[in-house]
Amino acid sequence: MKEKIYKIKNFSLNDTIECGQVFRFTKIKDNEFNLYSKDNYANLKQDGENLIVKSKNPDYFEDYFDLKTDYNKLLKGFDGDEYLEKARKYCGGIRILRQDKWEALASFILSSNNNIKRIKGIIERFCSLYGEEIEGGYAFPTYDMVSKLNEDDLKPIRAGFRDKYLLDSAKKVKNKEVDLEEVDNMEFLDAKESLKQIKGVGDKVAECVLLFGFHRMEAFPIDVWMKKVLKEKYPNGLSEQLNSSRGLAQQILYHMQRIEEGVYK
DNA sequence: GCCCAGGGAATCG
DNA sequence: CGATTCCATGGG
Question: Which nucleotides of B are covered by protein (CB under 7 A)?
């Protein structure tokens, strides 16, 4: 285990990890987490402007936390929108994580018509059953591995009706019917259509995968919480001028809505 | 017991 | 096209 310390201004480890973009973590205490991504594990701590990463591979997490992007610039895109300016003040320390593409795809397939607490449980069982053992826990199961499973194999993870969707995704990614590296190079709408060929991937899941797995900032996933935000705060629609901060805006609005409704109390 | 959750597929008009 | 209904599961 190496330890590296990164300087980040206007950052919140709590909000970044707990805002619903990622599921494989345990909170140790305020501003300290154990987190897993693909086949990497880290113990993460925030102390002021320091992000302390203990991991075999701290460099993975430097990329993961998108440390080379200037978020102040992205947040400046909120100027002139009263509600977004409030949201920015309230939880503007969120960063859009650069997650593994396959892990994001599989995870958000499992998220449909489900709640975050239960999603975490399903993914945890999925990893401990079919993920390779790594230091500190388990890797995320590879699509190669999952493509060899059947519905009975997945029963123990208790994913419900989503198990067949998960199998379909692994199959199509493995045989390159949906080539994740090609999707990465596609125009947004083409990328979205490609992902939607997978059973269990509709508009919302595709937008989540594109935002969190492909870092497409034009994505704007709309779930039940975002529907409320749009209805209550943006009856005339959101500004089209957000451009490269659209995805970030969505995530901050989503998180703030949930905090305000006492989800985390 | 009911309702809800980072929805989507299948069906029907 | 849009509107319904069904899909498993567990927490509140």
Answer: 4-10
